[in-house]
Amino acid sequence: MNCTFIGMNYLAHAYLSFNRPSVLVGNMIADFVKGRQKLGYTAAVQQGIELHRAIDNLTDTHAATAKAKEIFRPHYRLYSGPIVDIVYDHYLATDETVFSDPSLLAFTTGVYQTLEDEAVHLPLRFLPVLTYMKQENWLYHYRTPDGIRKSLRGLVRRASFIRDSETAFALFLAHYAELKQCYEALFPDVKQMAKQALDRLSPEF
């Protein structure tokens, strides 16, 4: 992820695990696993961790993301990256080629259940994140502008050098169509990369 932030685009990482439970675990906890700590997990969870990092790298270096960041950069500089991550999850949540409203709700419920089933294997620092994620249903509420507004407020609370989230929210609304085009340019490339990576896994994963 960008700067020093724990991953913002949780919905994308969950979706791009393609319903493989161990890969989902790795994809969701990757930012909480440093260095050789990865070796303490199963091969499938390690694959999820590596997939997370590959998704981040492609997202961060994609031309569409560079364009999206420029909308926020004058006000937020390096923090424009985490803001764009949050915005991308909104467009994924509202992408009718991926989710309907009921299917998104069912998907998010399944994600929380899978992670809770694996709680004994989750990093301790991730457990409070999971608790809040489920209680407030972050993954589902990315669908709504109010959910994005709350996510941006949460980002600012964890930030060291920014205090204002309302400007980011106003920019999101003002550039809604342009940011959606950035998502639409990026996501097929990320999805194809992730699917190809997982297709190389053993079926048991």
Keywords:
mainly alpha, globular, about 200 residues, 11 helices, disordered N terminus
In short:
The protein is built from 11 helices and no strands. It has helices at 10-15, 21-29, 43-61, 63-76, 80-93, 101-117, 127-135, 138-141, 145-158, 166-174, 176-199.
Mean pLDDT: 91
Percent helix: 55-70%
* Percent strand: under 5%
What is the total number of structural domains?
A: 1
Q: SSE string, helix = H, strand = E? A: HHHHHHHHHHH
Biggest sheet: strands, sense, closure?
Answer: none
Distance, first to last CA: 25 Å
Helix-strand makeup class: mainly alpha
**Radius of gyration, in angstroms, nearest whole number:** 16 Å
Number of DSSP helical runs:
11
Instruction: Let me know the number of strands.
Output: 0
- Spans of 5+ residues with little confidence (pLDDT < 50)? 1-7
* Cα shape: globular
